[in-house]
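RECORD TYPE: inverse folding
INPUT: structure tokens
STRUCTURE:
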């Protein structure tokens, strides 16, 4: 089973499932090489921006700027896909979401 589908496995009866996630990837800045470490620690989903601007992308409050992912943001998307992490687009601006949909190779 591909890594990106493993999150779909249902827990056994009476068990609780939990997905560790990062909101706006705090502390990452442009250090995309930290994603494998986060993955080893159990993080399976991350967003790269929330309301404001980060080194990876602009959040939804910056929507008027029409910004897309930065070069490190594109690297983050590629690395997260390689690792099988979910890339959360919920707080990106509209242009950022369109950019991710343009670049993403997996659901």
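DESIGNED SEQUENCE:
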């Amino acid at each position: 089973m591909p890594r990106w589908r493993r999150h779909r496995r249902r827990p056994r009866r009476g068990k609780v499932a939990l997905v560790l996630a990062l909101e706006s990837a705090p502390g990452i800045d442009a250090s995309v090489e930290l994603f494998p470490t986060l993955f080893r620690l159990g993080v399976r989903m991350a967003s790269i921006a929330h309301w404001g601007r980060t080194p990876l992308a602009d959040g939804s409050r910056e929507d008027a700027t029409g910004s897309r992912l930065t070069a490190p943001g594109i690297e983050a998307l590629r690395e997260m896909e390689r690792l099988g992490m979910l890339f959360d687009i919920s707080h990106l601006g509209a242009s950022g979401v369109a950019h991710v949909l343009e670049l993403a190779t997996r659901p």
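NOTES: The two ends are 15 Å apart (CA to CA).
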